[in-house]
Amino acid sequence: MSEFEKKFGKYAIRNLTLILIICYIIGYILRFAPVLSGLLNYLTLNPYAILHGQVWRLVTWIIVPPSESNLFFVLIMLYFYYSIGTTMERVWGEYKYNLYIFTGLLLMIIASFLSYAYVMIMYGSDLGSTEISMLMQTISYVFSTYYINMSILLAFAATFPDNVVLFMFIIPLKMKWLGIVYGCWLAFEAISAFLGGNIYLFFAITASLLTFAIFWFSGGRLMHLRPKEVKRRNDFKRSVKITPPGITKHKCAVCGRSENDDPTLEFRFCSKCNGNYEYCQEHLFTHTHVK
Q: From CA 220, how far away is CA 85, in angstroms rounded?
């Protein structure tokens, strides 16, 4: 546990996923209700309006939900993101999950202001304040929580690569393949947006991918490439081959559970602990490192 977490971990918001889902529900109610649909225009992440006094948009844009007109798919999407979000919150812990989400939100706000700066540089001398205001209002819908959700999905796929989901409710698919497909699709969208001149979409997707990259690589995910780590992993594999029958191959150093207690549990070694300490998926990110 870092010193920063010791000081500020107590301020982490509990059930953050549920709060986000409630925000989406409010947003969909505003979108589907004919009388209220126009209200969303005053809640989006519009830097021009923010700089002209509408500072509430720095918070209320979270209510603006991903674009979807089919109510059935909306419900499926909300359930899916609630499921993976609460899992990540439980496995990572409230502090790290809060940090991940709020980093994504902050990067999305930065991306929106970069878009505003781009508009002013490219068109500021040709357009009046009214035209810029209307253009930024249109662009503001690009900066929604959709790409925040994508970063959560990528984090879940990277943390639980062997978990199986039913793609299209029929096809069993491991999360690592789903994560690879979504990651490649986001990269393709970003490149296409950049080459096609849609810099605003490029900024939004980049903010999402950057959120995932910052946390994944800062969490020691490149440790397996180091020679010392490769040697330790090879030594462990050789020891497993000579393990007598009846002896478990994996055991969590915190809770003591093994693959015999739950065959679906995933186990990982912690690269930050001094020694070969293995942890289950629920304690990999929440244990105290052994020094």
A: 21
The answer, yes or no, to whether residue 122 has pLDDT greater than 80, is yes
Distances (CA, A) of 264 to 23, 82, 93, 187: 32, 20, 20, 31
Contact 66, 149 (CB under 8 A): yes
Residue 197 falls in which region: left (phi positive, over 0), alpha (psi -120 to 50) or beta: left
Report the C-alpha gap between 88 and 109 in whole angstroms: 23
Rounded distance, CA 243 to CA 154, Å?
A: 35
Q: How distant is the alpha carbon of residue 20 from its chain centre?
A: 12
Q: And the tokens for 269?
A: 């070694």
Helix axes 199-218, 175-195, angle to 10 degrees: 140
The tens digit of pLDDT for each residue in 144-188 reads 888 888 888 888 888 888 888 776 667 787 888 888 888 899 999
Count helices and strands in the chain by DSSP H and E runs:
11, 4
Angle at 208 between CA 50 and CA 225, to 5 degrees: 145
Model pTM score: 0.73
Contact 282, 255 (CB under 8 A): yes
**CB distance 248 to 260 below 8 Å:** yes
Cα–Cα distance measured from residue 214 to residue 202, given in angstroms and rounded to the nearest whole number: 18
Backbone angles phi, psi at 251, to 5 degrees: -155, 130
Domain boundaries, the chain: 3-218, 223-280
